[in-house]
Amino acid sequence: MTKILHVFVYLFVALAGAALWFELQLNAQRATLADRGRLQEDYLIKIASTIEKAEPDKSVTTEMRMDVSPVEAKIVDTPETENILEDYKFYLEKQSLETFSWGARERQQLRDVYVTDAEGKPVMDGGRPLMDGPGTEKELLEQLFQACSAQQARLNTTREALKKLRDLLEQTVSEVNRLKPELRQAKVSETEAASQQEKAEKSHNTLETQNVKIRSQIDELNAEIASLRDEAVSARDETDAAKEELAKALRENEQLKKVAKDALAQANVGPAAEAGADTSVTLPAGDKGTVVEADAEDLFAIVKLSNEALKELKGPELNKPLPRVELSVKRPGYKGVAGEFIGRLRLRQEVPGKNYVVCDILANWSQGEIKSNDVIFAD
Predict the structure, then answer these.
(1) Domains along the chain?
(2) Which residue among 94, 135, 149, 361 is least crowded, i.e. fewest CB within 10 A of its CB?
(3) pLDDT given for residue 239 in this prediction
(4) What is d(CA 276, CA 320) in angstroms, rounded to the nearest whole number?
(5) Is the pLDDT of residue 281 over 60?
(6) Cα(328)–Cα(346) distance, rounded to whole angstroms?
(7) In this predicted model, which residue has the larger pLDDT, 252 or 375?
(8) Across residues 335-358, what is the average pLDDT?
(9) Contact (Cβ atoms closer than 8 angstroms) between residue 313 and residue 360
């Protein structure tokens, strides 16, 4: 009996030692599992903070219109265009989307592996605790998995969009490289055309100078013809007293024209002898006379100055040379860009013994055609 008790004692001691060893091993595994659980919780929360929680707004679009009209030798005010980003998914550019932000509640849910009832006991499903349900770790991980899948799909879509953009960029660069030689050739042609235009302008200026000389010669011939005509009229009308007054008026008019044309002819050779070209005179403002006749083609006019105006120009004794001053012309009632102002004249040569003066019409001041009876004034 004693031996049997000894056997039971030894057996109990051996079982107690084995139980102690298993307890120590179990505690070590329990600590490992606890550390692993905490590590997985921490990194799941960190990973969740990098996962986008919601989809970006896909209704947002963008537009970039490219000129697709052919390049031709004509100006196109409104070229045909197309939106090259029509199929571009602009929502992929959306940044700083909301991500998962798990706190203490989600950390606790990660620890709830099973679905529990009101008493906190696991709900059984066919003899096994139910793991799929609200408030469980699986629910939280499933949300994270769905968000990861959606984010991966957007990443793949982004890669596809980048490939399309690269293809579009290659096409655009190829088109630019193709057009560059044409643009260089167009620049060369433009430079050559500008050079030819410059030569044409020089040739035109030469012809214009020759034309001025020819017109001057024509004016001289016209002056001689006018002089001969005056002599013929004077000789023919000497016997007729009634016609003599008419001839006198005609001669006076023709003489004024001749003097004007002679003055213009002398301008091509040198300054008029009678004109005081270097005399500076300041006239008081006011009307000085009227236009008797004007020739818009040859740019000269014959004006009749008042006695007061002549004294202002030549002195009280009328013994000074006529200065070549500029006077303005107006037409009362005329409504032009500058009001009644028509243009300006420069005094050239006076008709001896009369108040008539031949003037140059200054074309660059012209606001209209100078005509008879226009008023001469100083301003």
Answers:
(1) 33-186 (no CATH), 273-378 (2.40.30)
(2) 149
(3) 52
(4) 8
(5) yes
(6) 9
(7) 375
(8) 88
(9) no
